[in-house]
Specification:
Number of helices: 5
Oligomer: single chain
Order of helices and strands: HHHHHEEEEEEEEE
Strand content: 25-35%
Number of strands: 9
Strand order of the largest sheet: 1-2-3-9-4-7
Length: about 180
């Protein structure tokens, strides 16, 4: 994962260079201090998918370009075969597999997210991003925390919510949870 963090940091730095944006503006875009942002660019700190999406939206690039260094090319359709979508492990417990990475100007981001269980964990890292989000649990069980509420979702359950509210999740039990995350 450290290599992925460094690569993402390099792409963020490159984006800033190309657009002639100071680090302070990027930090402000995602609501953190400039020192923390500079650590992200050096690959010394993680950045959430939500914050990558905020940067991508504001500066007119795709989140996939920042995560994977791949620009979308398809304009009519884009097929992802089972298990073949571009993926990134954001933390040891979270893996995101993009299902729309190859489609030019996609209007939504769609991921299969895998969250590994953390026995005894009670700390939930919450994120926010503009728009709305739809989650459908494919396997396992999770606790989803949205703006002070805890909602338990089992396999087959779904939820649609305002993603500007702080939200995060934990896998319940000893099995990973896999869910479809659709953000608009």
């Amino acid at each position: 994962m450290d290599d992925q963090l460094k690569q993402i940091g390099e792409r963020l730095s490159g984006l800033r260079d190309v657009l002639e944006i100071p680090a302070s503006e990027m930090a402000e875009t995602i609501g953190i201090d400039v020192e923390k942002y500079e650590k992200i660019e050096r690959g010394e700190a993680d950045i959430t998918i939500s914050n990558l999406m905020k940067i991508a939206h504001k500066y007119g690039v795709s989140a996939e370009e920042l995560m994977f260094a791949e620009a979308p090319h398809m304009k009519s359709y884009f097929v992802v075969r089972k298990g073949q979508g571009m993926s990134v492990e954001r933390t040891k417990a979270y893996k995101y597999q993009s299902l729309v990475s190859g489609f030019v100007n996609h209007k939504a981001d769609v991921f299969i997210v895998t969250v590994e269980p953390k026995p005894g964990a009670r700390v939930v890292y919450k994120n926010t991003h503009p728009g709305q989000e739809f989650n459908l649990v494919l396997e396992g069980k999770m606790e989803l925390y949205i703006g002070g509420k805890t909602i338990v979702l089992d396999e087959g359950d779904s939820i649609y919510f305002d993603s500007s509210k702080p939200h995060g999740m934990l896998a319940v039990g000893d099995k990973a949870v896999r869910f479809l995350a659709f953000t608009v």
